[in-house]
Sequence to fold (82 residues):
Amino acid sequence: MSVTYYRIKDLGLLGKEEDYIPYLYKPGKGWVVDNDNILMDRVMGFDDSEPDNSPYKIGNSSTMDLVKEISQKEADKIIANL
Fold:
């Protein structure tokens, strides 16, 4: 099983990708599937504000800077403080 944890800096959220499925941590609910692509849009640098034909729509470094990969230990610490 492959798990990568992320801190979504602009939204103050915690995310993870587990076996290619993205999740967000919701206090009181635990890990829920990220059906709105909040995590993966940032990981891939998807910028919805760019025109469809723009080379910056995917791979946008400003969008990718909104998420930071963290360790499981860091994720557990964040969850413990929520």
Notes: DSSP finds three helices and five strands in the chain. The beta strands are 3-8, 13-18, 21-26, 30-33, 67-70. The CA atoms of residues 7 and 14 lie 5 Å apart. Helices lie at 38-44, 61-64, 72-80.
